[in-house]
Amino acid sequence: MHKLLLIIQREFITKVRSKAYLVLIFLSPILMIGMFAAIFYFASKENKENYKQVSILAVTTPEIAADIQKENQNITVEYRTVISFKAAKKLVNDQDLNGLVYANPLSNMMEIYGDDKIPLHSLETILEKHWVLQQLKNKGVKEAVIKQATENTPIHYSKKDDSHATIQKWVKGTVAIGSGYLIMMFVIIYGNSVMRSIIEEKNSRVVEIMVCTVKPFQLMLGKIIGNALAGILQFLIWGILLLGGLFLLQIYFPSVGGNSDKIEQIFNIIWEINYTEIFVGFVFFFLSGYLLYSSFYAAVGAAVSSETDTQQFVHPILLPLMFAVYIGIVTVINGNPNGSTALLFSFVPFTSPVVMLMRIPFGVPMWQIILSLALLLVSFITTVYVASKIYRIGILTYGNKPSMKQLVKWMFQK
Amino acid sequence: MQEPIISIQKLYKTYGTKTALNHISIEINKGSVYGLIGQNGAGKTSLIRILNQIIDANSGNIIFKGIPMTPNAVRHIGYLPEERGLYKNMTIEEQALYFGQLKGMTKTKALEQLNYWLDRFDITDWRKKKIQGLSKGMAQKVQFIITVLHQPDLLILDEPFSGFDPINANLIAKEIKTLAKNGTTVIFSSHRMESVAEMCDALCLIHHGNILLEGSIQNIQKKYIQETFEVTLANYQENELALFLNNAAYKTNIIQKEDDEIRFEVVNNQKETDHLLQDLLKVGKVISYKQHTPSLQDIFIKTIENA
């Protein structure tokens, strides 16, 4: 036990004081935030530009043109009086306008022409209203009666306020996808770190001295645990930085523009989330998922002599992890994080660390979490046993990279 | 009679269908320097790895310090492998503390021993240096310190002089001899016969997992000594020399002949050596008469060829 602790300590210290680790901790969040900010900035800029571009040529009466502009304040209405329909259509095409309203209630001609950006429903309603007005006038109905009937209608439309539910779904979805993605990243980064550390030990030949002092299994386990602790420390630092950042954002941007209510609502929902549960969930699922995958990474590291030889063996390890992220994202986006697909993959050991963590923000019964962790633990014990068999022989074998057949042979070699 | 520190009994090891060690038995006395020689793939590394408990034997026993070897015995063994290295990013002090503690030393004891060795090699200012900043020779010195830091009873050295320049090789050889003098038993594996001859008290030649030769170097050389003599005569008489050269009891090979002096190698086919000397005196005045002792290299090659 004392030896295992010494190995864990060495691995942990070596990892956390390396430059790569410091860069990963402090530079990566900045880069990631910068990347997301850039995506949001360009996406919103694109939206605004698209919105501004909607413009309509209105060859109609001043009343209809005025109504179109009144009902659709965000579009540009170019008003003309005397022009043929053919010429008007040509003008729309030549000037790259979005559409044309060619309407004169007196001449029984009401045409709408345009692409799918024009507010078709609104234009139809306006033309229909003016058509009816003209018909009534033609039938001799007094203007005052028409005015009374068409203006001040008792119809009132009020929008259902589901913004809280929408924002809540959006925030929880972001937290879920973010943490699932993070767990995948952590498993890959720290699994790779274990693999590289073993290859380095093998290449520098220090492994021969190590295995005459400690059992290969102890050495492998020490490496895996030491790296896991470095991973948890990184997650803690990132968690503190993220929550601190959000707290500062709330203080310094409390009421920017006209969206202050929405921002306040978003922050309220952010603080409503149970971070203790997510943190504990992350630690447990990261640990069990990482332990499961890192034993494979360790076996690969021991089997090969250089990093370039690892590709062939690492790909099969990455596939289930990526699959888990896709399954998680799809179920969260479809709004079905507790559906049968998500449920199934939150129990399959190779996908459960990612999928289950993505479900946690939406509320998962405790028995499901415990069952998922128990299955992961059983799988870890099996894989670490198999991996240690490969590791034990691989670390003392130099030269050509072994074939899959050879690895299987090592598993059963005494 | 000296008590053996380690007794290897009928050790048997196979890798699949290949036999690496074929029921070999060796006894090594405390404080001796024991040479392990053999070609590549002879079984030396397998034997060393079994002694270090890196791999297990199929059968056989190892008695260490009077009792069957336990996993704890590795605390009393220092191992310098042929393919060696240390952690590149750690300082010498960190490595010493790490390996010392893994071998069961306290931090204080490990530091105390490190100070002793750094001082002994006159490299106290290296303490905070990382291995990646050292030359190959310097790193080898540190490697030696790490191997002996925990004051092992048994030291297993595989090609200990590889990577050293002659001066540092000499320094390490001196330290190994001092350690042996102070009671440390050394197993010395090498291809370089001159090192084995210089360092070892006894040796064992392994070939295809079998022991071909075993015992003290003097006894082995005595066993292989030939009835070959190198003789120099002065004032010799030509007719007597011709008679000697034609004598069927001897096979003579002239090396040098100058004026009144002749040097030749003679193989005595008779049992008695007294007759040879008497016959030589008849030819001329005997200036030198030396029995030829074969080198370890010769014995090694001859034994392997005859195996």
Automatic annotation (TrEMBL), chain A:
GO terms for cellular component: membrane. Keywords: Membrane, Transmembrane, Transmembrane helix. InterPro entries: ABC2_TM. It is found in: Membrane. Coiled coil: none annotated. It holds the Pfam family ABC2_membrane_3. Its main location: membrane. This is ABC-2 type transport system permease protein. The lineage of its organism: Bacteria, Pseudomonadati, Bacteroidota, Flavobacteriia, Flavobacteriales.
TrEMBL record, chain B:
This is ABC-2 type transport system ATP-binding protein. One of its GO terms (molecular function) is ATP binding. Belongs to the ABC transporter superfamily. It comes from the Bacteria. Pfam families: ABC_tran, DrrA1-3_C. The keyword Amino-acid biosynthesis does not apply. Residues 6-233 form the ABC transporter domain. Keywords: ATP-binding, Nodulation, Nucleotide-binding, Transport. It comes from Wenyingzhuangia marina.
